[in-house]
Amino acid sequence: MVISRSRRSTVTANYAKLFALSLFLPLSAILAADRPASAYEPPLLLARQDRGPQALNLAGVYMVRDLDPNLTGSGVTIAVISRSTTYVQGQPQNDYRPALNHNCFANTKFNFYDYGLFPPGDSTHCTAVCSILFGQDPDADYQDLGQFSYEGAAPQAKADIYEFWYFLTNNVFAGSPPDARIITAGLGTPFEDWWTRGIEALAERFGITVVAGIGNGCSACDPVLYPGAGANAIGVGVISSLKNKDTSTTLSRFSRPCPLHSSQGPTADDRCKPDIVAPGNCLVAGHNEPNAYQPAGDWSSFATPVVAGAAALLVQKANETPSLSPALSPQGGNCVIKAVLLNSAAKLPFWHKGLLSKDDDHTVPLDYIQGAGSLDAAAAYKQLTAGQYPPGDCPAVGWDLNNLNLSKTPANTYKIKPAELHGKIIAVTACWNKHYNTVYPFNPLPEKDVDLRLELWAVDANNPDKVLLDYSDSIADNIEHLWCKTDPNYTEYEIVVSYAAPDDAGQPDQTPPYSIAWNVTDEPDKDNPLWYDLNDDDVVNDADIGIMMDNIIAAIENPKSYLLGDINCDGSIDTNDLQLLLDHTNAPPDQSNTFAETL
Ligand SMILES: [Ca+2]
Ligand SMILES: [Ca+2]
Ligand SMILES: [Ca+2]
Ligand SMILES: [Ca+2]
After folding, report:
1. 242 alpha carbon to ligand 3 midpoint, in Å?
2. Tens digits of per-residue pLDDT, 238-262?
3. CATH code of domain 387-522
4. Which class is 54-343 in CATH?
5. Is 527 left (phi over 0), alpha (psi -120 to 50) or beta?
6. Which ligand is nearest to the CA of 454?
7. HSE-CB of 70 using CA atoms within 13 angstroms
8. CA 20 to 30 Å from 406, out of 107, 133, 438, 543?
9. Domain-wise residue ranges, the chain
């Protein structure tokens, strides 16, 4: 292999860094052939080319529909909040609607809510969002992909499209909920405002699931955006496409969310955000031609309808299954949907709680970039349909919607016996709503809020002493999350949700409804190339080694920065991780040929 001048200088620079770090690793390892990251594709990444957008396939939405073909969004209303594209002297010009002449909307049941002061116009943004949610076109065609069936996440859902300012004045200000179980918005503001709190209040008062984009990261100069950053909403971040010149690859293969493209938490008041991430680069309906499709790009606005569409399928299932009806309850139904989506989310490589170090793992429930992880709609479907169980003996997968009472039941215990213990993780998520005043300016009511705590105990039937394996107790979040390895010495586990400070006179006698979801899942797959392909270019080579070494230094200089590279998940980035990366850069000789083609 001929090494170009630029590549040779990269390699030289990497050697210099190695020397600076006084590393003891054998330098010969770095001379190993590059390894194509594409050599491995986990099952979820395998594309079904006959339907799209592929982002919905990756997020498990099509798998849900395969598991339960009845789930199309039928009977579910989704309220889409859409901003007018044009403003004149601060006045929205009513161009907020999807392009109704597009083929994929031929059968969509749209209703529109606006002031009607100007003739309605189309919005490119709303056209894209609505195609991800409601689109249906069996004869879709796109240049690199050929013919395929375009299927939005919930094509038979009722689509209620609200002009943003109309929604704010008619619904939020008036405290009047839309006739919908789901509100979704691909917009936001960096600061909490009366209307973002008003949306929080709607979620709390009526149990409506609010799904909103978290913002587009440093490159768009965005901090986390409200209402997605609000305590009662589900804030959605975006997973980046793999870097590749081939559009069909960027539309079907994704890596991780990165701070450049997906805004990172925590919020100003130290809460974890986002809550969940999803791919956003969907093929979406074009604005001008009835049969045109185009890639949406890696924006959280388009990851948001992927999550909202998955939530719509869960709501439909709950609509049609009486035993799942608590998921629709005005008193905390949104918490059930949130707990189910977050607890079933797939951890992407390098997921960790809060900062890289483990010091904060008990007090920070989620990852500041990934939230609870990547949407896995099929796992969420299984989590929801596993059913509700009251405290006591429970199956290994389930959920509950319940209350605590300071004097009668200050704690609830859910006992599980996983069938398998080796290489397993017990995942538990609890969430509840924060309180807001019901009238403008919808101020928070912290005196009514509760602080809960989540614990996981290992139990030995022959020994009265239980072992506390893990706990999650944030003082700021209204969510707690556990992601804990099973201990093969124990077959029984107790999940305890309790008041964090039962002796605190400020805690309410009765908690608001909390939802808890638990399941037993597999440990992260260390063969996933995304552990080693640090720059998302689909190849593991010395560019990744360079990033690893930069990050080793940066982690020392700024422990609070969000950095990739803790491959062995011990809470630090160091030479042990570098060795693991070098091990995976060392490919068999026949794969070095594939490398040339991959580039
Ligand atoms: Ca941490
Ligand atoms: Ca807590
Ligand atoms: Ca790479
Ligand atoms: Ca490490």
Report:
1. 10
2. 999 988 888 888 999 999 999 889 9
3. 2.60.120.380
4. alpha beta
5. alpha
6. 2
7. 11
8. 438
9. 5-31+541-598, 54-343, 387-522
